[in-house]
Amino acid sequence: MTTVAVDVVVMAAGKGTRMKSALPKVLHRLGGRALLAHVIQRAAQLGARQAVVVTGHQADQVEAALGGMTEAPPALRCVRQEPQLGTGHAVQQALPVLADDGVTLVLSGDVPLTEVATLQALLDLCDGQHLALLTLDLPDPTGYGRIVRGPGDDVRAIVEHKDASDEQRRITEIYSGIMAVPTRLLRGWLARLDNRNAQGEYYLTDVVKFAVADGVRVFAHRIHDALQVAGVNSPAQLAELERAHQRRLADRLMAQGVRLADPARLDVRGTLDCGQDVEIDVNCVFEGEVQLGDGVRIGAHCVIANARIEAGAVIHPFTHIDGERAGVGVGPGALVGPFARLRPGTRLGPAVHIGNFVEVKNSTLAAGAKANHLAYLGDATVGERVNYGAGSITANYDGAHKHRTVIEADVHVGSNCVLVAPVTLGAGGTIAGGSTITKDTPAGALSVARAKQLSIANWKRPEKKP
Ligand code: UD1
Ligand code: CA
Does domain 6-229 have CATH number 3.90.550.10? Predict the structure, then answer.
């Protein structure tokens, strides 16, 4: 096992022409995160001391996006490759920031699904002294660099498709684009590159023939899972990798005991932590950080982001929950939806009920509170067992500032009330339906704030003139 320091070089200077997008290819998202972020995460998981990203096409945009891609080490830096003269030329740009005591692991910014264990195995093969290549057998190797082996199966060279003879083109073992190489050796080999080949490029793959010439051993770590080295060049390939990535996440969840109605109809764009006996119906999307406690059930077609849903809570179909930064908390045994919307800062206590077409934002509802139909609660503090009637709203915004509404325990708010904040409804009070409440209401009282009902006897409706 190697204990040599690892520097990761991520090639991300190429032009993603086939994406047909204004967004740089490596910033397109897979599982809710930029392709490049997946690659940098691998560097972090491997304990690399730094990740050097080689940028070129749309370098400004790529570099600007890098800031948000790691919270922890490795150290991140960028080097520019202008113009782009090939993969060997790309890695040459990183040499000034690479120290000779380490191993360089070369990755591509558009290959997101390589597993850490695979890269670790490659580093172990390299062992600080050898050249280690990640290779793969492909039924159709067209376009890829071929692994040419000599007597005794030793790797002798990588020959690019365009430079290969007919015989070499029949080789199905291809170079994945990923290698681990002792940096001091890499430096010498890159200095010897030339571009006398079919594409007029400086090929990184030519280091293999220099290693062979120098008597350095070349190892191939041959894997069978093409997904791990698949690159993204087009929207179709991106979608294909997205589904494969989602399937892996779904399999992992099911292995933990999560019951998915259909593993092909789940999207996790972030992290989803599940307790025991969680059930998720079809077509749910989870974003950011979501935690589901024991026995939580999520109905079909829910979108849930940045939320913590506690044990036994049920989220009925078509519910949208987005905690953004403030988060959303749903207490144990709460019932939410169908068609509910919970926005940032919502905290629902135990056994709270939020029904259809109810929107809650930056509000706390204590145990047993209910808002079952067509209502809005914004910037509100709602006490235990409050019943909040259909069609009632908090008027929390005066056009300049937000104000709080406090509804104390056991208050009963009738239907179609407007609570003009700031306002406090005293405990146990009743608010008559249709009231517009602008002043605090006393505990235990019935408060009515609407025109008194009036009836005019024998009322004659206007009649149409003949
Ligand atoms: C390269 C390998 C080939 C291998 C294939 C696997 C070389 C010469 N060939 O092919 O053996 O089978 O990957 O996919 O290395 N890039 C730069 N600067 C450049 C050129 C490329 O940063 O000047 C980046 C690209 O953005 C991409 C990566 O390097 O992320 C690989 O480039 P690409 O053109 O896809 O690979 P090939 O040269 O076709
Ligand atoms: Ca190329």
Answer: yes
